[in-house]
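Readers of this paper often ask what the protein records in our data store actually look like. The remainder of this section carries one protein's record, kept here as part of the documentation.

:::
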Amino acid sequence: MSQSVTAFAPASIGNVGVGFDMLGLALEGVGDRVAARRTDEAGVSIAEVRGLDGELHSKLSTDPEHNTASIAVRALWDDHGAGGIELKVYKGIPLQSGMGSSAASAVAAAVAANALLETPLATDELLPYALEGEKYAGGGLHLDNVAPSLLGGMILCPPVLLPDAVRIPVPDGVSAVVLHPDLQVNTAESRHGLAQGYSMEQWLSQQGYLAGFITACITGNIPLIGKTLKDVVIEPQRIAAVPCFQAVKDAAERGGALGVSLSGSGPSIFAICESEVASNLAVAMERACRGQGIECQSWVSSLHAPGAHVEP
């Protein structure tokens, strides 16, 4: 049985625009890592948290009561572990970026700790434990970052299906471009600011777009993705917090994007496009963001990005 292990969990696009709290997409090339090792002292502890620069993180706590990684592991360890476990968290996702930063830490920690169990659980069985960590950060049962980070790909994960999450087939030749402006949006505060009531017209429109988008993904109907990747309910309420949003969206649409929206609560902005235009689209989105006086970075990802895994 291993005494130490490191796991990687990818960033993710929550909501995927059209599916608020119900749809998520894993991303290639960016994520968090958590190293876990067995200890003689009972309980779960965090030795250190390091940021994007490799230095000790100035904002994230090493108190196991206040870190999504340790909260997820404690839930798993209480049910299946024995002895103690120590974590080291290496952040690769900017905080409050709308890219599932807290979820990735929880997922990577759960996957690493699971590998130290005498009889590890199946990957999908880790979802409730990773969700315990995400609940601390997000204040509720929101699977749209945790599920794709754990399982990979495009995931349908409305809370009413708990503990299940459904992998949605996606077409080849389609990519996601994610742009992260140098801004922060607090997810919990953003949620509190949302309207509590919506018109029947809004509800029916958004239901139609979600059903059409899922159908388009499953059938590989790329033009239909372009017709249905729309958010008429949540996006209009959140874009004021992201001053570069409209400029970036306009640039992406001119560059051939099938659809553009906020990633999670923002400030990150994502576009779905045919893969052949993805690199140029990323450049255009970055140029538009910087044109608003805001620095940024971007990533291009397949829609088939793998989920969390133990690293060799």
Q: What stands out?
A: The two ends are 15 Å apart (CA to CA). The CA atoms of residues 73 and 110 lie 5 Å apart.
